[in-house]
Amino acid sequence: xxxxxxxxxxxxxxxxxxxxxxxxxxxxxxxxxxxxxxxxxxxxxxxxxxxxxxxxxxxxxxxxxxxxxxxxxxxxxxxxxxxxxxxxxxxxxxxxxxxxxxxxxxxxxxxxxxxxxxxxxxxxxxxxxxxxxxxxxxxxxxxxxxxxxxxxxxxxxxxxxxxxxxxxxxxxxxxxxxxxxxxxxxxxxxxxxxxxxxxxxxxxxxxxxxxxxxxxxxxxxxxxxxxxxxxxxxxxxxxxxxxxxxxxxxxxxxxxxxxxxxxxxxxxxxxxxxxxxxxxxxxxxxxxxxxxxxxxxxxxxxxxxxxxxxxxxxxxxxxxxxxxxxxxxxx
Amino acid sequence: xxxxxxxxxxxxxxxxxxxxxxxxxxxxxxxxxxxxxxxxxxxxxxxxxxxxxxxxxxxxxxxxxxxxxxxxxxxxxxxxxxxxxxxxxxxxxxxxxxxxxxxxxxxxxxxxxxxxxxxxxxxxxxxxxxxxxxxxxxxxxxxxxxxxxxxxxxxxxxxxxxxxxxxxxxxxxxxxxxxxxxxxxxxxxxxxxxxxxxxxxxxxxxxxxxxxxxxxxxxxxxxxxxxxxxxxxxxxxxxxxxxxxxxxxxxxxxxxxxxxxxxxxxxxxxxxxxxxxxx
Lengths: 331, 279
Hints:
The structure holds 2 protein chains of 2 kinds.
Chain A: H1 7-52, H2 54-60, H3 63-66, E1 70-71, E2 78-79, H4 82-113, H5 116-130, H6 134-161, H7 177-201, H8 205-213, H9 218-247, H10 250-255, H11 276-283, H12 290-324
Antiparallel strand pairs in A: 1-2
Helix pairs in contact in A: 1-12, 2-12, 4-5, 4-7, 4-9, 5-7, 6-7, 7-9, 8-9, 9-12, 11-12
Chain B: H1 2-10, H2 16-25, E1 30-41, E2 44-55, E3 59-63, H3 70-76, E4 87-95, E5 98-99, H4 107-113, E6 114-117, H5 129-139, H6 145-158, H7 162-165, H8 178-190, E7 196-200, H9 208-221, E8 226-230, H10 234-240, E9 243-248, E10 251-257, H11 258-263, H12 268-274
Parallel strand pairs in B: 3-8, 3-9, 6-7, 7-8
Antiparallel strand pairs in B: 1-2, 1-4, 4-5, 9-10
Helix pairs in contact in B: 5-6, 5-8, 6-8, 8-9
């Protein structure tokens, strides 16, 4: 068509080379910049939180993590994070124990059992719930839900087991770790179930048919063909939910009872408590001394380490599971 | 519903004349009798009033151009069709005198007696070769390890896979080649000791060597199992089957001995399809 010896074609081809390169450079720059942002943020957050908590670790040493006194009065200052670590772990654990099975149930119903005309609107509603800000859940919990928890769940449990099981031995009040755990569960259920449903949808129908063709019932098919396929995805979804529960602030602050000091170490599910995040939220405005501020920032550091630790453990867990059932990823 | 079907049975249709002559030649037992079966996707009728008798311990091939309903018909035979959202079937499929569409019948039980092999090999990816074959047995409550091991070995031998995998039974099923995976799926189905084996284009995703191994297997297996195979490959139908059913746009056009269908079909449509004029 065009003769290769023509002067114009040479111009044109050189133009193309330049333009392509320019576009590529721009693209690379943008993408690398975006990726670098994540590293930069981790670095910055890690740096400022660590630097901010230097003071308190100099004053208290590693004991800060294991002791329970919390006194911000000048001259008698003492800070320890232990009760809030326990409060965080316990409230999140309650949230997981309640939330994960319900989330799985929702996901299984939507993706495996419900006909599309029910499943589709239901999954839409679940996603809608996932988008509700936690302050809304918090307000509702504070003004409505905590009375239900107290009267319908905590009191019966207390009456039945309070005498001999220490976990239930404390007059329920409604604003406590148990309530916080339940409300956290309510908050993370939409997220976990949405992700689980999405993961289950990816399971090829050929897998389900394989199970059906062997005479599996619906439940057996889910157990045999769906679960093994999505195990790692479900663990991932649960970890994402756990991450949100551990770091959730405003909602927990509203319902957990907000005690400080040694009495914040929960002796029962019905103890008032405090989490790392809720204590920071409660006291940040009034932090008068540098040491107090540093102690609060150190709580943030512990929270950061805790979250990362959970993520790493979850990742290792998933990896191990995939290795144990190798081939799960090939297909 | 019941009444109308009975009247239909009483009046032999024109179409079934050919089928009678060729079927009655052999005196073997009829294993599956398909009576007035319709397969629906929503309000679309994908197969229309199909009547067909399947002989015991023979290979019957369903052929026809894509979209003719041959796979749908196959899936109606173990009530797999209705698992597709929005799909349902009506009519009667009589297996050894029992209508599997009867209200009192649990489809799960039917699928335990009628094995199925799919277009694409679908071993369970998280299970080992051994566990794949044992999956159906365990599902049905078999706990005796000795028996499970014996049946797994026997099934793998029957699926002509034993020699290739006997030293790697604990390897994941997905580590096998495509053809081996398909034979693994056949072994998985055979472990349930099915009376009927449905094969839905079992070689369509395999290379020629894998395909010919499956075909060989089909010819051997028919001594013990009634096999119904859907294929888009006419040579394959001619090679492996004793009877052939030709379908077109949801209708069963012609059914008879494979030789007869391929050598001198009675319907012009069959003739044109066989000779490659369409489809």
